[in-house]
C-alpha cells in the first residue's frame, strides 16, 4: 500500500484522536474526577457497573485499534515489495516475484551434490535481493569450500538467469551427517 504523506499524516492524527477519546472514556468509566458539568452528567450514567464495564471494554478496543494503526503506519517491514525489477526500458518495466526467485534458488541449491536438504528465502532490498540458504550438508562436504562455492554460484545464477541484482548471499549450514551414517529414506 503506497500512501501519500498527507494521508499518513491524517491517519496518524486520527489514531492520536482515537487514543485520546479512548483514554477519556476509560478515565470516566473508572471514576476519574472530571471538572466540566457535561462530562460529569455523562459519567453519572456510568454508576451502573455493567455500563462502566462495557465502556471500559469499548475504550480498550479503541486504544488497541489505534495503537495497531500507528504501528502499521510506521512499520517499514510491512511495506516491503513482493517483487523486484528485472528490466526497465522506454516501453516499461519487467518484474519478478519473490516466490519465483526463491523457487529458482531452491532448485539451484538442491542440484548441488554436497547438499542434502535446503530451505531458502529471498528478501527484496530496493532493486536488489538478499538470499538466505539454510542447508544440510552431506558427509563428504568440505563446509568452508561448499559454502563459498554456493554463495558464488547462487549470485551468478540469479544475476544471469533472472537479471536481478544480488546484494548478499548467506549460507547457513544447519546440519551435517558424519561419514558412514546411513542416509534417511523419506
What does this structure look like?
The chain is of the alpha+beta class and 186 residues long. 49% of the residues lie in helices and 25% in strands. The protein has helices at residues 5-29, 37-44, 49-74, 98-110, 143-161, and strands at residues 83-89, 92-97, 115-125, 128-137, 165-176. The strands form 2 sheets. A 3-stranded mixed β-sheet has the order 3-4-5, with helices on one face. Strands 1-2 form a two-stranded antiparallel ribbon. α4 (98-110) packs across α5 (143-161). The chain is elongated, with a radius of gyration of 28 Å. The mean pLDDT is 81.
Largest sheet: 3 strands, mixed
Number of helices: 5
Low-pLDDT parts are none
What is the strand arrangement across the widest sheet?
3-4-5
| Helix content class | 40-55%
First and last CA, distance: 42 Å
Roughly what is the average pLDDT, rounded to an integer? 81
Oligomer: single chain
What's the overall geometry?
Answer: elongated
Q: What is the alpha-carbon Rg in Å?
A: 28 Å
Can you count the beta strands?
Answer: 5
Amino acid at each position: 500500500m503506497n500512501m501519500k504523506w498527507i494521508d499518513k499524516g491524517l491517519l496518524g492524527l486520527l489514531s492520536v484522536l482515537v487514543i485520546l477519546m479512548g483514554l477519556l472514556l476509560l478515565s470516566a468509566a473508572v471514576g476519574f474526577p472530571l471538572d466540566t458539568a457535561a462530562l460529569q452528567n455523562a459519567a453519572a450514567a456510568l454508576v451502573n457497573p455493567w455500563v462502566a464495564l462495557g465502556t471500559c471494554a469499548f475504550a480498550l478496543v479503541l486504544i488497541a485499534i489505534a495503537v495497531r494503526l500507528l504501528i502499521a503506519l510506521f512499520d517499514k517491514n510491512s511495506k516491503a515489495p513482493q517483487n523486484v525489477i528485472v528490466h526497465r526500458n522506454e516501453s516499461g518495466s519487467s518484474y519478478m516475484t519473490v516466490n519465483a526467485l526463491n523457487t529458482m534458488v531452491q532448485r539451484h541449491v538442491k542440484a548441488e551434490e554436497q547438499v542434502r536438504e535446503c530451505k531458502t528465502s529471498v528478501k527484496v532490498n530496493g532493486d536488489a535481493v538478499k538470499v538466505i540458504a539454510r542447508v544440510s550438508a552431506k558427509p563428504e562436504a568440505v563446509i568452508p569450500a561448499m559454502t563459498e562455492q554456493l554463495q558464488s554460484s547462487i549470485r551468478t545464477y540469479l544475476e544471469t538467469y533472472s537479471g536481478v541484482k544480488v546484494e548478499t548471499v548467506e549460507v547457513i549450514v544447519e546440519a551435517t551427517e558424519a561419514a558412514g551414517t546411513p542416509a534417511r529414506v523419506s
